[in-house]
Design brief:
The protein contains two helices and no strands. With about 130 residues, it is an all-alpha fold. The protein has a domain of about 70 residues.
Length: about 130
Amino acid sequence: MGLMDRVKAQATELAQQGKAKYDQVQATRRADAMLRNLGALVYQERTGRGAPDSQAQIDKLVADLSAHEAANGINLSPEPTDPPGSPGAGQPGAGQPGSPGTGQPQGGGAGPSTTFPPEAGTTTQV
C-alpha cells in the first residue's frame, strides 16, 4: 500500500469518526431539548399552571425520550450539580468565598487577623 493510499484510508476513517461525533452531539442536543420541555411541563403542572392536556404531553415526552435514549445509546440519568472532586462537593455554598469551612472571612472584607503596614508619615504606638 502506497503512502497516498494510507493517507486516503486515514482521512476516510477520520471523516467517519467526525460524522459519528457530530451525530452523537445532535442526538444529545435533541435529548436536552426534550428534557427541558419535560421539565417545563412538570413544573407548570406542579405549580398549578398546567394545561388540560399537560399529562398527555408529559406521557408523550417520556415515551419519546425513552425511545430516543435507546436508539442513540444516550444515558439520560441525572447528573450531580457539583462536579465530582470539587471542594466540598454536595455541600451548599462549599468552595465559595465567605462560606463556612473555606477559611475565608464572611462578608468578603478583611478579617481581624489581616494586618496592613502603617501609612507613611504616621507613628505606631505600642
